[in-house]
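Exam revision sheet. Question 4 asks you to relate a sequence to its structure. Input first:
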Amino acid sequence: MKRVIFAIATGVVIGLGGVATAQEAAVEAMQEYMMFSDYESGIILPAQITEDVWSSIVFVDTRDAEQFAADTIPGAINIEWREILDRIDEIPEQGKVVLFCNTGSLSAQAAFALRVAGRSNVVVMQSGLIGWKETAGYKPAE
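Answer key, structure tokens:
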């Protein structure tokens, strides 16, 4: 019986050690990203999205499907913010990718996760869809 308890306890400790190591690696990756990123490297303002760059941008609406169906930026794809890493293969590795939600707060979390995962081409649109409607540098005809 003592051997069984020891084996279970050892397995739990080893298993927890793996979790701690994974957490440490994640924290280290986030620290490295934060220490070496420029202040404005992960954001774009709606006014910066002009007609000359419009066609080269992939827009990702990080709101839920219902909000996306009701209103979005023309041509945007929908990947809810909490699914962004599960669906990372749908995010281009090249070219500008702009993530947005209503105000920029949820999409900022998704953009941070993608940038820590190595997608330096991903930015969050500061002020989100609301800001884009108010101050966009370009709005295509609908």
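Marking note for examiners. The chain has two domains: 1-36, 43-135.
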